[in-house]
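>> received
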Amino acid sequence: MSTTSGLVGRIADADLTYVLAMLAGVYALYLAAGLALGFDARGLLNSVAVVTFYVAVFAMLALALNLHWGYTGLFNIGVVGFMAVGIYTMALVSKPVLGSGGSAAQVGGLGLPIWVGMIAGMAAAALLGLVVALPALRLRADYLAIVTIAMSEIVRFTLLSRTFQSFGLFGRTVGLGGGSGLILDFQSPLAALVGTLGLEGAYAGLVGLVGTVVAQNPRAVVDQFVYGLLLLVFVAGFYWLLKRAGESPFGRVLKAIREDEQVAGALGKDTDRFKIKSFMLGCALMGLVGVLWFMPQGAITPNTYRPRLTFFVWIALIIGGAGSNTGSVLGGGVFAALLFQGPLYFKNLVDRAVDISNAPGSFGPAVAPLLGAGDPVPFLLYTVDSVRQLQLVLMGVVLIVLMHRRPEGLLGHREETAATVPLTRRVAGEDDEPESQATAADGGQR
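>> returned
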């Protein structure tokens, strides 16, 4: 009986169980919302596909940021800059050559395969991380934050510049597109993967199967849903990579730097070199997420990469708990489902139950009846109608509550320790714990 209960307890405490429970809860919530809104099969599949996409991208970004902040203690608030460098570099490398194939794009690319562009985007983001890290990592945390956010804005204004709108490279006319952005006129990444794996027939069969319940354009529905599932595979890859890194000697040094950099340096570790490696690896992962997020969009513009996207990632990490990879995945999922996409679904639900077409268009007419006649209805209608604009306010309130009530996040209490061996030694003659209990107490996670 005790063995069975112990097995059940280990399964319930397993990290995969937490993640699967989070996904099941998100899907149940969105399916219930879709049914309440009267969605047909197409609408239900679309809602699940969209939330899967955002859960995956925010989970990956939270994991990458966890390497910087949770593992190494590096205060990076320039996440969006590395994402922009990743996707723009990928576009520069993999867009078709200007004038080939009847392309209507204003600038072309080098025409290399998509996978080459993805690697180039990661490499460019890592190289930018090196450029930022060399002068900045000797700064204190708050000054490093200023440098990284300034870097992200420099990247955005560089992308907006007319100077780099179009230029020559290796005999090709390429460019960053300026304020007009870039058209991503290359093959769909999902179509390229299906073709590379030789799964065209099986994929067509899946589209045909979905077409029996989705009459209008089932291919688009399948593409969106399968791409979301593919991104969940990338989340698993990110998790595995960071877990292995954290359990390696490299990761143990990073955790020691997080706890006390001076002590790590006194033990003979080149802390600057370790911080630079950690920073570059995290930046490369952020560049890859930038590619995976915006590659299927069809077009990109510089003003998409404003600092608020960085703060979204920080909220996701804080929700899950810095220092925990599983917490980062949970935080990304909770943020995407409840705070990023949730307000839109809430508005649609209220709009279906109550007619909000007569909601006041500005704050003054909304609050005047409340202050005058004590009528709260116009103000409530205005609030629901403006929920997208009030989204940042909601995030701020949630962040304040978290900081007061649970600053360690959902799983921040499981932050991995910096030491892998007991830091105390038993004194001969003392009544010590049994060896198994001492090992469990000193070597386990907090």
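>> DSSP finds 19 helices and four strands in the chain.
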